Amino acid sequence: MSETTEDQNxxxxxxxxxxxxxxxxxxxxxxxxxxxxxxxxxxxxxxxAKKLNLSRxxxxxxxxxxxxxxxxxxxxxxIKICRAEACQAMGADALADQVRRHLRVxxxxxxxxxxxxxxxxxxxxxxxCAPAAMVDGKVVxxxxxxxxxxxxxxxxx
Amino acid sequence: xxxxxxxxxxxxxxKSEKTVTLTIDGKNVTVPEGxxxxxxSMEAGIQVPKLCATDMVDAFGSCRLxxxxxxxxxxxxxxxxxxAADGMxxxxxxxxxxxxxxxxxxxxxxxxxxxxxxxxxxxxCELQDMAGAVGLRDVRYGYDGGNHVEVRQNGEENPRxxxxxxxxxxxxxxxSKCIVCSRCVRACEEVQGTFxxxxxxxxxxSRVSPGMHEDFLDSxxxxxxxxxxxxxxxxxxxxxxxxxxxxxxxxxxxxxxxxVGCSFKAEMRGEELxxxxxxxxxxxxxxxxxxxxxxxxxxANHKDRILNPMIRENVNDPWQEVxxxxxxxxxxxxxxxxxxxxxxxxxxxxxxxxxxNEETFLVQKLIRAGFGNNNVDxxxxxxxxxxxxxLKTTFGTSAGxxxxxxxxxxDVVILIGANPTDGHPVFASRLKKRLRQxxxxxxxxxRRIDLVRSPHIEAVAHLALRPGxxxxxxxSLSHVIVTEGLFDETFxxxxxxxxxxxxxxxxxxxPRHSPEAIAGVTGVDAQTMREAARAFATxxxxxxxxxxxxxxxxxxxxxxxxxxxxxxxxxNIGRPGVGVNPLRGxxxxxxxxxxxxxxxxxxxxxxxxxxxxxxxxxxxxxxKLDDEPGLRIPNMLDAAVEGTFKGIYIQGEDILQSDPDTKxxxxxxxxxxxxxxxxxFLNETANYAHVFLPGSTFLEKDGTFxxxxxxxxxxxxxxxxxxxxxxWEVTQNLARAMGQNWxxxxxxxxxxxxxxxxxxxxxxxxxxxxxxxSVQWPCxxxxxxxxxxxxxxxxxxxxxxxxxxxYVATDERTGPRFPLLLTTGRILSQYNxxxxxxxxxxxAWHKEDLLEIHPHDAEQRGIRExxxxxxxxxxxxxxxxxxxxxxxxxxVVYTTFxxxxxxxxxxxxxxxxxxxxxxxxxxxxxxxSASNGPSEWQVEYDRQAEQARRxxxxxxxxx
Lengths: 157, 959
Description:
The complex is a heterodimer of chains A (157) and B (959).
Chain A: H1 5-19, H2 26-37, H3 44-52, H4 56-65, E1 77-82, H5 85-89, H6 92-103, E2 109-110, E3 116-121, E4 133-135, E5 138-140, H7 145-154
Helix pairs in contact in A: 1-2, 1-3, 3-4
Chain B: E1 19-24, E2 27-32, H1 37-43, E3 69-70, E4 89-91, H2 95-110, H3 126-134, E5 152-153, E6 156-157, E7 171-173, H4 183-192, E8 197-200, E9 207-210, H5 226-230, E10 236-238, H6 239-244, E11 249-254, E12 263-269, E13 272-278, H7 291-295, E14 310-311, E15 319-321, H8 324-342, E16 347-351, H9 357-371, E17 376-378, H10 385-394, E18 412-416, H11 420-423, H12 425-436, E19 440-444, E20 453-454, E21 457-458, E22 461-463, H13 470-483, H14 489-495, H15 498-509, H16 515-522, H17 526-538, E23 542-546, H18 548-551, H19 556-569, E24 579-582, H20 589-594, E25 601-602, E26 606-607, H21 611-621, H22 633-642, E27 647-651, H23 655-658, H24 662-670, E28 674-679, E29 691-694, E30 703-706, E31 711-715, H25 727-737, H26 747-757, H27 766-772, E32 774-776, E33 820-825, E34 850-853, H28 855-860, E35 868-873, E36 877-884, E37 892-896, H29 904-907, E38 924-930, H30 936-948, E39 951-952
């Protein structure tokens, strides 16, 4: 059953009320909203803007700056592949191509069955173990083609 | 004449009194502490290349072009963000810097269209200038990489490309030309204070976004034009420039919309106006503007504008176009005939708050010296006449006490009965800037206006009073201040009449004025009221700004005096940052009042019965003046209905639409034998006119306007009058046709006559205005350069006068038949009765007047958003559409009166201010019910108007 916009607003407002006294509350609120809904639902930004007495533009500017704030829900699993220099040098591009072909998605897209979302990331701090990836929040180093296949199997792709 | 290019210093001026001296490229320069190296360089005449810096907004340091080298410091700091320091040695052009700048420019240009020759900003593009300045010759990166320029790339759609946004009627947003300097975003935030723009995304994906990636028109944008002015490229560009091309000369003049009186550069190509750009040296606006002054000048060329004089014997006849000579002879014959038949007093006139001081002076001169009576009045009758009365009584002069710069020193503001973000937008931006710096705001208004809460602004208190209870609220605020001992005894003892103060203090201390006692009347929570009073009395520099929500009441004059009491009791008069500030409605309403437009006052607010003053004018004019005050507008109309008043000359005012009780005005006009309307358009009043004299716009004449801060600003002619004559020439020609020997050849001669007769204008000359830009009256030997703040060393009248302000409820009461209170106001994009703004693209924002009604009241009546409703009062009824909002309290409804079809003044009553006859527009008991469409009166009115506007073209007799 899908939630009405009004119910959604009530939940967003509750989050705002809870955090509004923090110093610089916008980012923590955005995080909490994403935690609550799995993404930043349409309309939430307007509610937040109203609550914090900011303009719609300002809230949009902040939310759109961070790629981690999603406009839609992600798949059940999230695979992030590092595209920064060290990983590129160790074959991250080929690895990424393999995954994109396998999942039939491009960057920042989710598979048709809503199971997997593929995202780029720029440095996981694992340069010594490049190429690196992150699967559902867990970092993985030295990701060979085989290793990636096993990962994809595990998440049911 | 040439194009005025104002120096862009790159960063705002520093205000410190301490100075520092540094060396830039071998030149010594001394600047106030806190000045940026960039600004210091510019002051030494050295232009450091820059893109993201402009002196209207704070330094940002993003473009990396303004880098300099400082001896003894590492690296290449940005000159915009580096403060000048004593002994600093700066180099702005070194081999290292040149190389860096070229590299930066290459990157910019690699993602910018190369269509300079066909670009609208060609010749006015800072990117182009900088490419030239750094000597850019080639772009090593080429143009084939990722970009925002090409619609298609490598045979595929370019996902980064964004099409032009042309939704705003006045400017376009072309993202392909954007260099993401964010000057527009910062101008919207820092100058305008709307925060409608942002940079969305990050890195190479960064784009300027109105709202949440919306069209400009749908976003929070209020179209003030600050972003367009700030844009260094053609990304944000006036459509008029795209259409016409770059201007070749410009003239500084004054906006003819509201009482803020913004200075603009009218940028011209020949006699064609290309654009209006706010002038940074304008002391009222400091380089800012609003959608009206900046863009809404198209009415000057609108097809509805009447360019030929017209006459008719009977108002049911179609108009007959005639020559100027014939129209003036016709008028003079009629006027003379009327006076011969009905007596000297059967004629009168109305001066215009839209016209210049000089024109207004001439109209009242024509009436007093030519008609031989004092039947002259002006539209201030229906707006700020209580201000004149109230401030004259308490302080001794009929004007606001401050300049607009004063707001920069204010700590706490009471805003009562004014909605500056809509009515006085440029002042609102200046106020908002101060509020963002920490000043506190108390709003007294029945409606939740934008300033109560909008991005980054929040009033500490909103006293949402019931319409008509201003006096009760103000007296109660004074009650708190006096009974809690928060008044400024030293100030009162020094500056005011102590006995009168004590009488007043005893009066306000009476428990019946306590917030608790009057909460039932005003509807304002007592605790909120007490806190507001304490905040104002103890918050530092306190300033009171007010508008028509104060004056247009049966107790308008009392409210003005209650405001004056409050300011005096708290010691908030006579220095920057404080004061009583009426926000005057029209561009020259202050001036028209100053120029003797009232029936009892000669120029300079001197009573007609004062023989010494009359002597001055009689000497110069060579006539004997009538010493009896003449008729006010409502009295003229009454006398017309009674048959004793037969002819009127109305310059630039639409009394049928703007004055109360439309039906009575119509009856008065219909009873006259010669109604002369001198205007740009066939306004509503002209439906009852026998002579129409076409008027000229502010672009077509020389003169002066006096704004709400008493500032006399020059209006300069930039094009030939399309109707043939400036308005002052038309009045002069009419005076001559009536037998007056007037021979002015330029308005400066009229100003000389004003200065010679009026002490507060004694030193005003066009030469002085040319030199100083503008001056604020009084301008005389005591204050040769004018008076920014009044009552500095004592009140004009001597001692400040406290007046007891008893609250008397208006006779207009709600009851079972009319249970709601209607109050009226304005909207940003439209101006007054809309004669001008309705004839511009501003209608994109406000096509029709709407009735704001609270959800609770709407539900009870089964009214939904957008429904036609019938709005009825004891006076009449009209129909319009409803919008449902909780900005108004339950029991209160609100509408604007910009469109003649709405006929809001059919509804308003004939109750008026007890002292000045100013109509009580702000309170009318009404009922609202569902309706199918326009009322019978509206349909009949439209039919009559259409009938009355028929024009027969001129037939030349010779052929």
